[in-house]
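Narrative of accomplishments. A recurring question from our advisory board has been how the design workflow behaves on a single, concrete structure rather than in aggregate. To address it, we present the structure tokens for one chain from the evaluation set, followed by the sequence designed for it. No filtering or post-editing was applied between the two.
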């Protein structure tokens, strides 16, 4: 039998235990690995769409907006009044230098051409990133940003807000259930009334520089893009999407929204090929083709099939501007005017219409056998707040970059095809090459102007 410990030995044991606990407190703390309860956030871009993004983040009870950035001091002033106490910057690079230790996350709500440098800098600094669509301006940027996000293990979310809505999430579940049989074709469109004015005819590029307003930091606005003379009401604040230097055109702007539910529902992978038909007046104008995007596009992708498709390949088509889905497809919808922005999936037994921002509509074929289905029970979800909750240890985001990156690549391959209209481009996703037409590969990536290179 062992000797019973004395009171003195007990005191020695307790003293040693206390010393060990003080030396390594994390080993004894039940809260050592607890998720943070507050997200320190920086908003980069607070005008236009960025103003709406700022308001959404501010509504979350567990978000503290500590820094704001915009190249337009008018935007910055309004945002600073909305979030008193937040530190303000006109250059995102200065924000990261000063605030890297003070922030956990950022949202990137600036023109497309500056998405990648800002987002990848944030990721390299281990910050969570919410980035407006499209993820980047170029295919190669999307690939690199996706890889960086996965490697860093940060939380990400693409700004496809409707993807968190009841309509898109319901559509994803219905597609996965195969209720309209095997999928044969997808018709995607964005023929929104007034959109032509949004992507109005501009060009050629203004030759003479106008005086830059005192409130606008033009060099920072240009960022990675080539130097262009400032011209009022041409680039900033809204018409930049029309210009190849800055935006990705109509399909790049809206394509990620319309593609999202179809992509997720079918579990789509990189396309096998892409080809584009474009507006004739743009196609026949060398000046416009050098600078701007057309106001009408018809893009066709061939994708590899899977267990949900009717064959080993699957075709998706995009229509915008003066191009519309075929009349026989639009005629399938009997309950009013065909939705201007929507996706229509054609199956072997019926069709599924997914109107933008609305609930999906199942359309049985006369002799088809649409499966019985029950609409899924889904909780309401705010896309921005879902990102915040994920940053704070909640469930994975709806449109994380590993999910939305490959889809964005496909959308942007459409913009490459636009620049070489009527040319079928076979796509080698692994090598990022067009084996049958290498001349188009120059449109996969840009050369950033001096001083704005991304390391």
């Amino acid at each position: 039998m062992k000797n019973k410990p004395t009171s003195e030995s007990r005191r020695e044991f307790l003293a040693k235990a206390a010393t060990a606990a003080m030396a390594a407190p994390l080993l004894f703390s039940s809260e050592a690995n607890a998720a943070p309860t507050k997200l320190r956030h920086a908003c980069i871009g607070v005008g236009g769409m960025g103003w709406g993004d700022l308001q959404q983040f501010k509504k979350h009870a567990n978000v503290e907006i500590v820094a704001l950035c915009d190249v337009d001091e008018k935007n910055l002033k309004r945002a600073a009044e909305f979030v008193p106490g937040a530190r303000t910057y006109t250059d995102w690079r200065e924000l990261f230098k000063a605030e890297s230790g003070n922030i956990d996350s950022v949202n990137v709500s600036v023109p497309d051409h500056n998405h990648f440098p800002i987002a990848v800098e944030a990721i390299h600094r281990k910050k969570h990133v919410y980035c407006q669509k499209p993820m980047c301006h170029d295919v190669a940027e999307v690939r690199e940003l996706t890889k960086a996000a996965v490697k860093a293990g940060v939380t990400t979310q693409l700004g496809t807000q409707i993807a968190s809505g009841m309509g898109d999430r319901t559509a994803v579940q219905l597609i996965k259930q195969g209720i309209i049989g095997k999928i044969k074709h997808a018709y995607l469109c964005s023929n929104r009334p007034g959109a032509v004015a949004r992507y109005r005819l501009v060009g050629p590029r203004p030759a003479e520089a106008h005086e830059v307003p005192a409130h606008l930091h033009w060099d920072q606005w240009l960022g990675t893009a080539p130097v262009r003379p400032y011209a009022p009401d041409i680039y900033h604040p809204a018409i930049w999407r029309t210009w190849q230097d800055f935006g990705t055109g109509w399909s790049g702007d809206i394509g990620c929204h319309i593609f999202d539910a179809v992509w997720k529902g079918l579990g789509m992978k990189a396309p096998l090929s892409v080809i584009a038909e474009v507006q004739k007046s743009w196609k026949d104008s060398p000046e416009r083709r050098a600078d701007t995007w057309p106001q009408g596009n018809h893009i066709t992708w061939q994708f590899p099939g899977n267990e949900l498709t009717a064959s080993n390949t699957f075709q998706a088509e995009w229509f915008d501007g003066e191009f519309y889905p075929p009349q026989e497809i639009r005629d399938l919808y009997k309950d009013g005017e065909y939705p201007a922005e929507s996706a229509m999936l054609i199956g072997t037994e019926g069709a599924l219409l997914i109107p933008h921002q609305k609930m999906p509509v199942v359309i049985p074929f006369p002799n088809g056998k649409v499966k019985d289905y029950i609409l899924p029970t889904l909780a309401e979800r705010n896309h921005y707040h879902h990102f915040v909750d994920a940053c704070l240890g909640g469930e994975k985001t709806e449109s994380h970059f590993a999910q939305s990156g490959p889809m964005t690549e496909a959308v942007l391959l459409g913009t490459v095809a636009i620049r070489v209209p009527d040319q079928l481009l076979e796509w080698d996703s692994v090598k990022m090459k067009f084996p049958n037409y290498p001349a188009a590969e120059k449109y996969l990536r840009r050369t950033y102007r001096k001083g704005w290179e991304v390391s």
